[in-house]
């Protein structure tokens, strides 16, 4: 019993000041986990419904009537399906993105702001998806046996282009980005990096508080658009030393060229998922295609089969997710933590920053192994804190 209490206290005591706030964070993390699961089941169910009710085939046939044959039904089909799935996902999005966040006092958005943001997201999707799906289907139709390999290879240039454009075209639609206001801090980190022979790209801050009370930092962009971004929520709450270690972690990603590792990892998993989708969708469409109204000679190349491909690809990505997460944790995120500690030497600030990050985001410091494998591409909070502490004691012992 004593041991049990001690364990409980340690788990809460590391990050949360008392057991009540620890319990609250655990409840919040649990809800978020269920929401992820519900989202997957919901989108899978929508795909099944679209196929078995003939809705997908119906939208395809209507699209064919609407546009000239040379154009094909893909773009109008994608537009309609994007709209339909937006509407169908809205209740879950509202519950997860608004109700729960407000219940846990993490949101800074009123109803109007939330709706405007959802509509902006929809608009971005409606602009990007139709030409993208058109391109994908052109390849599927012209290379019915090799499309999976061609699409996987195209992931690399596509990701590079997207990574270049997202920070300058998409992200500013939702938040304001500006150079780090604290020039002293920017100068300090640049000095640290220069001492290591590293050139820092832009360090920017964003008004994350427009949406949330949660804190975050990330690196994004490619080439000229490469940047490290810190949330204003983080800057408001963290001391200079704590910001510095967070910044150093993000800098570590740049120094280690992690964007290329992520692209490599992404390409490998995309290849595996595309291949499995190709192999599994063939027999599936042969068996059920006619019943779902999919063209017998079209197979996967008929846009009406899109929900079937999405279903198979979704299942396949679940298989690779744990591996992808584990590789990201070990090869990308943990080394960035180590870099941050080596660069700054501020282990205590690192531990405090992690604890603060956990409290602000209501993170569960010690998720179960299953949840860790399925959902964590960073080491868990407790692992990061323990690493920081070990680093401090090893340094002191030297
Ligand atoms: Zn990171």
Features:
398 residues; mainly alpha; four-stranded mixed sheet; 4% strand; disordered N terminus; binds zinc ion
Describe the model.
- The protein is mainly alpha-helical.
- The chain has one domain (19-397).
- 73% of the residues lie in helices and 4% in strands.
- It has 14 helices and four strands.
- It has helices spanning 2-15, 19-52, 55-66, 74-103, 111-142, 147-170, 183-195, 232-237, 240-255, 258-288, 306-344, 347-361, 369-375, 381-397, and strands at residues 177-179, 202-206, 217-220, 227-231.
- Strands 1-2-4-3 form a four-stranded mixed sheet.
- A hairpin with a 6-residue loop joins strand 3 (217-220) and strand 4.
- The longest helix is centred in the C-terminal third of the chain and has 39 residues, at 306-344.
- The two termini are 38 Å apart.
- Mean pLDDT is 91; it is low at 1-13.
- Bound molecules: zinc ion (ZN).
- Zinc ion binds at residues 249, 253, 333, 336.
């Amino acid at each position: 019993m004593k041991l049990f209490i001690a364990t409980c206290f340690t788990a809460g005591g590391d990050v949360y000041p008392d057991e009540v706030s620890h319990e609250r964070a655990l409840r919040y993390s649990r809800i978020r986990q269920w929401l992820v699961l519900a989202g997957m089941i919901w989108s899978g169910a929508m795909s099944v419904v679209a196929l078995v009710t003939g809705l997908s085939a119906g939208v395809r046939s209507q699209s064919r009537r609407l546009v000239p044959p040379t154009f094909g039904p893909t773009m109008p089909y994608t537009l309609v399906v994007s709209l339909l799935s937006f509407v169908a996902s809205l209740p879950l999005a509202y519950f997860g993105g608004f109700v729960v966040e407000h219940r846990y006092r993490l949101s800074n958005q009123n109803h109007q702001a939330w709706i405007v943001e959802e509509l902006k997201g929809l608009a971005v999707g409606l602009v990007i998806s139709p030409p993208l799906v058109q391109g994908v289907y052109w390849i599927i139709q012209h290379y019915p046996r090799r499309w999976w390999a061609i699409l996987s290879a195209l992931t690399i240039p596509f990701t590079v282009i997207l990574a270049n454009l997202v920070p300058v075209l998409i992200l500013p639609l939702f938040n304001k980005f500006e150079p780090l206001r604290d020039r002293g801090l920017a100068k300090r980190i640049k000095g640290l990096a220069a001492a290591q022979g590293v050139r820092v790209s832009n360090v920017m801050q964003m008004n994350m508080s427009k949406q949330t009370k949660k804190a975050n930092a990330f690196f994004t962009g490619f080439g000229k658009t490469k940047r490290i971004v810190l949330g204003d929520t983080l800057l408001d709450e963290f001391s200079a030393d704590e910001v510095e270690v967070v910044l150093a972690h993000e800098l570590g990603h740049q120094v280690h060229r992690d964007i290329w590792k992520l692209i490599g990892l992404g390409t490998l998993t995309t290849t595996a998922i595309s291949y499995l989708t190709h192999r599994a969708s063939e027999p599936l469409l042969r068996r059920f295609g006619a019943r779902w109204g999919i063209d017998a000679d079209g197979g996967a190349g008929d846009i009406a089969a899109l929900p079937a491909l999405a279903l198979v690809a979704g299942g396949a990505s679940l298989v690779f997710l744990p591996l992808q997460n584990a590789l990201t944790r070990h090869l990308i995120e943990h080394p960035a933590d180590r870099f941050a500690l080596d660069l700054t030497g501020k282990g205590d600030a690192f531990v405090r920053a992690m604890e603060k990050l956990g409290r602000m985001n209501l993170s569960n410091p010690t998720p179960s192994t299953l949840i860790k494998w399925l959902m964590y591409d960073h080491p868990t909070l407790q692992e990061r804190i323990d690493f920081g502490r070990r680093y401090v004691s090893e340094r002191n012992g030297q």
